[in-house]
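During the no-cost extension, the postdoctoral fellow (Dr. R.K.) reprocessed legacy sequence entries with the updated structure-token encoder. One reprocessed record is reproduced below for audit purposes.
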Amino acid sequence: MKKSVLLSMSLALGLTLATSTQFDQAEAATKEVKYSTCKELNKVYTNGVRTSKDTKNAVFSKKEKKTNYKATKAVVNANLYKLNTHLDNDKDGIACEK
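Re-encoded structure tokens follow.
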């Protein structure tokens, strides 16, 4: 009986620690940071950051002399984008797009 009680307590403690560690990692990943370069931002957000899910990547075609809009896989986070608008050189609502 003592073994089963100890085993239950150990299991409960282990689950508590695992849950708190996962929460800390998730919280760290969602912190909004102002980056100084696109290289730094792209280490965390590979395809960049955009203001909304409807924002498309504006690509200027020299051959056609017009702007075309393409879908993007950039992360949607309006607050993070606001912190990093200085990295959106073409002002299309996506910072550091690839």
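The helical segments are 2-29, 38-44, 78-83. The beta strands are 49-50, 57-61, 66-70, 75-76, 94-95. The remaining legacy entries will be reprocessed before the final report is submitted.
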